[in-house]
From TrEMBL:
Compositional bias segments (type: Basic and acidic residues): 139-163
Domain of life: Eukaryota
Polar residues composition-biased segments: 129-138
Name of the protein in its database record: Uncharacterized protein
Positions of region (Disordered): 120-163
Record's keyword terms, sorted: Coiled coil
Coiled-coil regions listed: 30-79
High-level lineage: Eukaryota, Viridiplantae, Streptophyta, Embryophyta, Tracheophyta
Length: 163
């Protein structure tokens, strides 16, 4: 009976091969295997991309957080500037007042220095004129003494020549 069953199986196989059923079945099986391989490769590629996607999403999230922080920082800076505007105006007013006071004191000092320089100039002119008058008097005395010595010498030479 086994032989008969074996013979029947072989006959059925030949019938299936001759009818093309077995060939279609083999092609179908091969296509299923290829489909499974493609799906496995796609899953593998997706799994390989997952870390990249995770990293990219993490980077995007961090960039968004940084942008949000920058925006908050700019808003805070604007608020601080608005808060300190009155203080800046007061400081500016104080600085202008202080500069005006310093200008006044420097002008007063310049006037005082000019007055002192004028006094010194007048004093030096007085002392120079006094010195000139002294020089003139000494020059006159010297010239008188020179004249007297010259006259004295002439008188001697006249006396000597008379003798």
């Amino acid at each position: 009976m086994n032989k008969l069953l074996e013979y029947g199986r072989t006959a059925m196989f030949y019938i299936r091969v001759l009818s093309g059923y077995e060939e279609r079945r083999i092609r179908n099986y091969r296509m299923q295997l290829e489909q499974r391989v493609r799906e496995a490769q796609a899953r593998k590629a997706a799994i390989n991309k997952v870390p990249e996607q995770i990293i990219l999403t993490e980077v995007r999230r961090m960039v968004e957080e940084m942008q949000a922080l920058n925006k908050k920082l700019e808003e805070t800076e604007v608020a601080i500037e608005e808060y300190f505007k009155p203080l800046d105006k007061e400081a500016e007013i104080l600085m202008t007042m202080q500069l005006q006071g310093e200008e006044k004191t420097s002008e007063m000092m310049m006037k005082a220095l000019q007055e002192q320089a004028m006094r010194q100039q007048v004093e030096t002119e007085k002392s120079a004129s006094m010195h000139q008058t002294d020089n003139i008097e000494t020059n006159q005395k010297e010239s008188e003494s020179v004249v007297k010595t010259c006259i004295g010498e002439e008188e001697k030479t006249l006396k000597d020549s008379a003798h």
